[in-house]
Design goal:
The chain is built from 26 helices and 2 strands. It has helices spanning 5-24, 26-29, 33-38, 45-56, 59-72, 87-100, 107-115, 122-155, 158-161, 174-227, 255-264, 269-285, 292-298, 303-334, 336-339, 354-362, 367-403, 409-431, 437-448, 450-461, 467-489, 501-517, 524-534, 541-550, 560-586, 589-609; strands at residues 344-345, 348-349.
Length: 617
Amino acid sequence: MKLRLPDLAILIAYLITMVIIGWVLRKKARQNKVNYLLGGKSLPWYMLGLSDASDMFDISGTMWMVSLCFVYGMKSIWIPWLWPVFNQVFLMVYLSRWLRRSNATTGAEWLATRFGRSGPGVRASHNIVVAFALLSCLGFMAYGFVGLGKFMQIFIPWESVRPYIPFSVLPSYVPHFYGIVFTLFAMFYSILGGMHSIVLGDVIKYVLMTIACISIGVIAMLRLHQQGHPLAVPHSWFNPFFGWRLHLDWKGIVDDANKKIAADGFSLFGIFFMMMSFKGIFASLAGPAPNYDMQKVLSTRSPEEASKMSGFVSIILLPVRYSMIIGLTVLALLYYNTISSDLQTPDGTDFEKILPATINSFLPVGLMGVVLTGLLGAFMGTFSGTLNAAQAYLVNDIYLKYVNPAASNRRTISMNYLAGIIVVITGIVLGLFVRDVNTVLQWIVSGLYGGYIAPNLLKWHWWRFNARGFFWGMLAGILPAIALAVLKYQNVLQGLDLYYWPVLFLLSIAGSVIGSYSAPPTDMDTLKTFYRTVRPWGLWKPVHQQVLKDDPSFVANSNFRRNMFNIALGIIAQLCLTLLPMYVVLGLKMPLLINSALLLAIILILKKTWWNRLKEY
């Protein structure tokens, strides 16, 4: 085995701790539904923010980001806009407050505050968002499952384990075997302890990851300076800015990197960036998808704390995560000849294996155990948070709504347990069919979300948009997204899913508008309650006039321009936080100075224009 005894001891101690946490907190979680799914809405914003950041620090995403950083250098900071990562800024500035004011348990339950509990299309809109939530949750679980298997196989070779396993496993399914084993640990503590155990587990994981990331960054920095010569990379690798083309030529350095750039479809980076930004802005305006991120927002104690939590995520996630990403990238570049054999597959170089190969080759005993445990915890945290969200939709929005509305608390918790087991089994089965991390990632962020964006954007900003429009808008986007995944899997269609997104978006808009006008407007009393409570800006004039009749002193939300200004500053700050550890590790002093000065100026401005005015609208 590649792991030494101290490393194994750290790993085993972590797994035992997670099991104990789930067992100890099971009684607290069983008190009621809100306690189980949302931690009783009593957890402080910084704990939930740390937990949310910890869930985003997933192993599959980190493997993907290290491979991007190796190939694309400083320009890799833009590619995570595919998610888009800057949706956290929109949440921070205003959307988390709007969402939290509903006091709902899930995104599907939130719809009742917007469209009412009865009327044309209400039930259909509820069902379609539950279906979307479950699809996206299962997709993210399969995504994490694949990354974990790739990761663990390098550290625990199958040859060392096979003599102790009483059955045979095909070589191609060895990563899936590892995935199943560690998934069971995540399932145990998250199902038993609910949100309380998930948040506590995330705090422990974050501490481990912080130690690991900073240590890797320091080791990489010291080794880079000891070498005394520049990294063997293309000239523009150090420049985060770009033109229409990347102008990154790896010929004669790492030839397969050019093949990856061509396969990724990022060569015409200017067009890719515009498409990614266009889609990302609309996706961010639509609000959080119904997964663990939304559940953390709904778990906060107040709308103001929801905004603070979302802002806190970027601050504690990006510098720490990118310390590891740039650290592993530098080590891989310095010693590429040493690890290159570990990256080879029958199809060429697998750059997603850079992370485990580098950790396995250059980290000392003890620290390797901390890093491995932290990354394993990253998988378990993401998995458990996603599992919690899926349970919430199955139990709260299907079982309690349609099957047994009068279920006792004990029965409800038991159904949460059963739902969790069903979701885990389904996620594992789906994971068996996933070829690589990037395949499912591209489908989730570029394909499936094409059906989510249009109706969820309109629900905030257009009074005439109703439940039937929501249903048809979601359906008109989701069905083509599923068809896209099938056609690409069968190699009928080629190219990035992102380039098909405008078609999905237009189909979804058409479904939303046509569906809305095929039914009467939402009941005016429901609209007035929503408008007064959430205080959105947008096309709400008819509702605003009706509210004024009841309350002439009511003032509309006029913060659109200030919100957009704060969002622009927040996105720049996010980029500065990402570049900060990269400049430190690479020893680029002048860019570091400029970056730090810009970040400090933005923080001071946001203190005045955002933090001090959190209670306004």
